Amino acid sequence: MSVRVRADLDSLPAYVAGRTVPGSTKLASNEVSRGPLPSVVEAITHAAHEVHRYPDMAATELVDALAERLDVPTERLAVGCGSVALCQQIVQAMCAPGEEVVFPWRSFEAYPILTKVAGAEEVRVPLTADNALDLDALAAAITESTRVVFVCTPNNPTGTALREEELVAFLERVPSDVLVVLDEAYREFVDDPQAPDGVELTRRWDNVVSLRTFSKAYGLAGLRVGYAVAPPQVAEALRKVYIPFSVNAVAQAAAVASLGAREELAQRCAEVVAERKRVRDRLLELGYRVPPTQANFVWLPLGQRTQAFNEHCLENRVVVRAFTGDGARVTVGTPPENDALLEAAASFAG
């Protein structure tokens, strides 16, 4: 007799990471191309000399720095190995087997995986025809078995973002015993003044969590550190299911230093936003359909043409993230990287 693995894992969808192809321009994983903020590199180097010591499991310095920056008490903060780990911690902490997790689809592809691993039931709610979140449908999908609703804004992979007015109207419809998780991994790239600030909404609702990460705008994707702003009892539950020491010491030091590099971050995000507009405008000129985006990527809803576009880009040494049958997500990189993408897009005849 061989060891027995959970039979339901056979149907578990695989998380597909963006490909790295040597010699090609990688625009597949929503990474910033310029690396960590310049002043943060020194903190990373210094912390590397102490990796023979275990990290502070409570991430005390980081939590204190976040509390000061966000003006929230430390008991409302929890950290994790990237915001994706916090998504997993939320489902583990909130859902018993058979209870429901509601999320838009297509959205962050980890949601169905994390739900199934926890033994919960997924409820996918289709996007609108404009590739945006359908809040009316999300509200209608909530049942007595629902424990968590993920709301990704800006949405990954479509880039569309909610307005505060519509999100507030949605929150007013959600039962108070259902946790709404605002996944704001791309919040730093948002320039729409009408977009919601999830941290502010956590001050008004006792069933709202804001998730953010240092992976995207801060350029720390390889170090894996994110955080949640949550009601105290939820933050405490997240800490209970946290894998000990999973936010390493280098990540903690880099995150603290990143919080102190506000001017560098603002300049970086402004550059990305400017390139985002240039890339989208040119793609629209070329005849592509490109939804408005508030993230550091654009979405091309190519449908059945997606795989052909992906192969064409690879032939032109540009790597994008293809979601076969739906569309392609393309990271906004440096101007030369974006030019390579635009040249490939201009020559695509599929």
From TrEMBL:
Pfam family, one: Aminotran_1_2
Catalysis performed (reactions): an aromatic L-alpha-amino acid + 2-oxoglutarate = an aromatic oxo-acid + L-glutamate
InterPro entries associated with the record: Aminotrans_II_pyridoxalP_BS (IPR001917), Aminotransferase_I/II_large (IPR004839), ArAT (IPR024892), HisP_aminotrans (IPR005861), HistidinolP_aminotransfase (IPR050106), PyrdxlP-dep_Trfase (IPR015424), PyrdxlP-dep_Trfase_major (IPR015421), PyrdxlP-dep_Trfase_small (IPR015422)
Enzyme class: transferase
GO biological process, one term: L-histidine biosynthetic process
Top-rank taxon: Bacteria
Keyword terms of this UniProt record: Aminotransferase, Pyridoxal phosphate, Transferase
Domain Aminotransferase class I/classII large positions: 25-344
Xref: HAMAP family: HisC_aminotrans_2 (MF_01023), Phe_aminotrans_2 (MF_01513)
Protein name as catalogued: Aromatic amino acid aminotransferase
Species, as recorded: Actinopolyspora saharensis
